Structures are given as structure tokens and as C-alpha cells.
């Protein structure tokens, strides 16, 4: 036989192929002829009998040939362990067998496909799952699983958590896993429905399986959802996992979860170096969280470091947390450091107590300094209701501070707050000035900004023990505060002011040009320090009562002063006009009429005392006009009228000075008009010659009037000394 003959090898090849073909046909014939659908049905339906479950096949069981032999089973139903409650329903199952084991009579399933499956998974009140019994090892059967591929299409899964009442539905889920015996690849997708929200899920992961151990060197998962509040929400997760199907335990390394939203624009990351988990609990020695949120012109940044983190059916817990938060809008920024243990019971009830908080505020409105606070307290809240409650006490730049703040909502929050500060000296945060450069409050021309109001929505109560702004001082402030981006309002405002008491309200309207309204009553106040600190006017002393109804517009305190409109009234007692002694001025009048129209001698230490003074002013664009000023003293009575121009800090005022008839009956009521003009701080007092001769045409008539009015010795105003 010639083994090198090509014809010989051709014959051998042909005969071999024919033999294999005949063997293949024989095997298929044997498989189909020996296949008993009824027997297969009975065997399958009895396979779960030991668990109390029932398995029923309502459709057909058909053999398949290509690409490998197998079975196609339709309408398979599995009950719960009570034998009645539905657990699973599969419209169609395809199971394919391996060729070689089949030649020896073994049924080794290598490929499984499930179509249109419905499954109900229940977490019982004890934390167990309703399918745990199916994961136990079962008695040997004619079928042996050695899967090389698994395909699940059109699956609907309902998850009921009887611990927290949660209900999840997974719809149109698909799972494809290939090459399960070697380096497997898995892909999953579906739609998760929870509380009316729809989440699209996807997962890809290579993995290897060794008995009950599954190693996933690097998985990648994505969840995409949307809401009216946050826009599109995208969650990406990656890391390394090890799963044990026998013990249902998992280990993870280098886990990372990234969360992004579009409305507002935000990004956050969670990093977990190592984690261990079971069906009931997750533990990690450390985890970190960081991220940022952009909302309109506001920027939020945060980072957290958690230690001994535990996640179970009761919630999320951390033995300690160290959190950094920063908030900025334009040039304004607030940085906070919060340290506290963390509890998130039922994944919604937040508790951080005891809590330590350090806050640092920076703003160009306070160029000389920065607000710093160190506080202790507690933070509680309900995330499901978007509510937080902070209670703290401590110090603000050395001053005692206590506050309670409740926040509703997280995207555009609303606040209810109470704030109590022992002492607040705003001068330490304003541009530094030398003592000789210090100005009254309403002489400050520095523009103020109101963009910080963009993000306030607050209602509450304010208490300040002592407040200082410029030279202005006020104590015991209490007010109901309402703040929105459009206005800031202080109602039921009370304060101790310059030895008196103030009540009223104030409202700041944020318009194109800011507008301020004041309605206030003052009782028992000292007028001189008040006017000096507000308007740098110190020519009057006394205590008394008054009321204010004012409105002003402007972007600085000086602009507000220059646009003051409204009414002011005051009544003072036991006071004095400083800078002039009217009695001495009358006594020292010159004897010659031609000198009567000159200036009257004044000095800073001179005073005209009075027992009562009353006046009401009408203000228009920073100019105060008065027609009814009355001053009463033991020696003189004075009436006055004129104007105070606060915009230019000048005065133009007329006083009608008359000797008191009750004290000087023999004078017959001498009346002398005085004119006050010039700067508010250094006015000029002079006899008002024009007022004395008003209505007289000739020079002789004018001289005669003056002589009649002033012919008597002015010194007679004083009481006559008794004879020795």
C-alpha cells in the first residue's frame, strides 16, 4: 500500500467524514427517538418538591437540534415556598446540551436563554430573601449545569422590601454573559422604577468563576435618570469585586462612584478603598466624598472623610466624619469645617451630634477683616422631606453667639432661623480710618452691594446685645426678620438707643436703586449723641421722645441721606442749645442801631438751657424744613423756622427770641429775631435786621422800630438784684 498516494488519503478522508456523519445522524436519531416530553415534564416539575415550591410547565417541551441539541420549554411557573404565591414566570426557556457528554448519556447544560421572565423578589422583615433556598446545593439529577453562556431578555423584576416598605420595579431587563468557563464578559441593561422615577441602568464587567467564587477585576456601571429639580442625573460606578455565591458575601477594592447633575450643574465622587458586604450589611474602614455644585452665580464645594462606615437595613452610620464646605457667590465666600459622628437612620433621618463647626466668612464688604466663628451643637434632618435643623452656640470673633436654623429644600432652600449675638462691632470689618477721619454714619459714601440677597429666603428672629457701625451705637436689638431676594424686612423692631428706647420697623427694598423705609418711635433718648453719630450735628442737647416716618433711595449711606423724604417729630425736656447763650447775647447787644445787624458772639461752651423743646420736620430730598419749633425756658421763649440741608450739612434757620413774661413782666415782651446760617458744625448766629424792619419803607421808620424794640437796656432782662 502506497501511503504517499493522494488517492489513498482522499478515500480515507471521505470514509472518515461519512462515518462521522452516520454517527452524528445516529446520535440525533437516538436523542430524538429516546426523548420523552412527558417524562421530562414530570422530572422538571418534581425538581423543587423538597423546597415546598411548585414548578409547573403550562406550554410545550420541544427538542432542538442546531447549533447544539437542547430543549425549548414554554410557560414555566415557580411558586413561593408556600406552594401557592407566584414567584417567577418565564414565557420561554432554551437550554442547550454539550455534544460529547451527550454521547455518553450525560445531560450537561452549557447554554441557557430566558425570554419574557417575571420575577418577584421579597426581602422579609428578618432581612432574608425569598429565593435563598434556591441557592442551596440540591440532590443530583440527570441535568448538570456547566454554563458557557447565559442570556436573559425582556425580564421584569419586582423587589419588595418589607423592612423599610420600599418597592422597586426593574423592567425590560437584559443580561448577556459569554465564555463563562474562562474569561467571561457580562453586559446588563434595564429600566428601574422607584417612587415614580425611572432610572436607566447598564453594567459591563469581565469576570472569572472558580466554583462559587466570582472575581470581577474591573466593572463599570451607569445609572441615568432625570427630575424637574436636578435635570439629568448620571451615576457612574467602577471598581473591583469578589463575589461568593455560596456564602453570598462580597469584597470590593478601589470602588469609585461619580454623580453628575445638570440642574444645577454638579459633580461629586465617592471613593472607597476597601469594602466588605453581605446581603444585610456593608462595612468599610474609610470612605471619602468630594464634589461641587454650580447654581446661577453660586458655587458650592464640599469634601468629607468618613471613618468606620457601616451600611445596613437600619441606615448609614459613621463613627466620625470630617467635612469641609465652601460657598461662594462672586467675591463673597463662606468656608465651614464640620466634625461629628454621622447617623442616617432609614437612609433619611440625619443626625450629627455632638457637632463642632468652624466658619470663616470673606467679603469685600468687610475689607479690613473676616468673620470667624467657632460653634458647637447638633445637626438633624429628614432628607426625604428635604429638611435640616442646626442648633449651635459658641463665639463670633470673640462675641457670644447662639443660633437655630431650619432649612427646607436643597436646591433653592428656605430658612427659618433665630440668631442671638452678644456684640457685633462692624467697624472692625470696615475700611480702617484714623480718628480724625471718622465720619458720621450717613456721611459714608462707600457703595454697598446687595447681590448677597440673591440667595436668601429666611424668616426668623434676631437679637444683638450691642451693635456698632461708625460712631453709631445701639444696644438690646430684637426684631422679626424676613428676607427674600427682593427685600429685607425688620418687624417688631426694638432697641435701647442712647439711653432711650426704640420701637418700629425697617424695610430695605432691592430695586434698581435700593429703597429704605423707616417707621419708628423713640422714647427717653438723648438727642445730642444720636444726632452727632448719625449726621455729625451736635448743637442740641436733651432727652425726650420722637417718631420717624422716612423713605430714602441710594446705593450708599450718604445717598440715602441725600434722598430722605418723610416726617420727623421730637419733644425734648431739660436740654440746651449749645454754641450760643441767647440770654448773654441779648444782654450784650450793641447800643448803636447800625451795628445791630452784625454777628452775635458765640463759643462752643455756651448754652441756652430750656425746659421743653418741640418741633416737627418735613424732609424732601435730604432737606428738613420746620415751621413750628418751640423752646421754653425760665428766661426766654423761642420760636423757630427754617431748614437743615443734610446734603450740604448747612443750616438756614430763624429764631424769634422773647423774654419770658412770667419772669420779666416789666419788659413788656421784648422780641429779638436771630438768624442761624452756615455749616451745621460751625453755624453763624446774627441778629436778623431784615426781620425786625420788615414792612417799613423808609430808613427813618426802620430806625424808629429798632429804637422802640431795643431802646431799653438789655441787661434789664436779668432779674434785679435786691438792695442790701
Provide a descriptive summary of the structure in words.
This protein is mainly beta and 724 residues long. Among the domains are: 40-195, no CATH class; 479-717, no CATH class. Helix content is 11%, strand content 57%. The protein has eight helices and 36 strands. It has a 36-stranded mixed β-sheet that branches. It is rod-shaped. The N and C termini lie far apart (179 Å). Residues 435-439, 590-598 and 710-724 have low confidence and may be disordered.
Give the topology.
Elements: H1 6-34, H2 37-45, E1 55-57, E2 61-64, E3 70-79, E4 86-97, H3 99-103, E5 107-123, E6 143-161, E7 166-178, E8 184-194, E9 197-210, E10 213-227, E11 231-244, E12 249-262, E13 265-277, E14 281-295, E15 298-312, E16 315-329, E17 332-345, E18 349-362, E19 371-382, E20 387-396, E21 399-408, E22 414-421, E23 424-425, E24 458-469, E25 472-483, E26 487-497, E27 500-509, E28 515-526, H4 527-535, E29 540-553, H5 557-562, E30 565-578, H6 582-587, E31 607-620, E32 623-632, E33 636-645, E34 650-659, E35 671-679, E36 684-687, H7 689-692, H8 699-710
Key traits:
57% strand; 11% helix; 36-stranded mixed sheet; disordered C terminus; 724 residues; mainly beta; 8 helices; rod-shaped
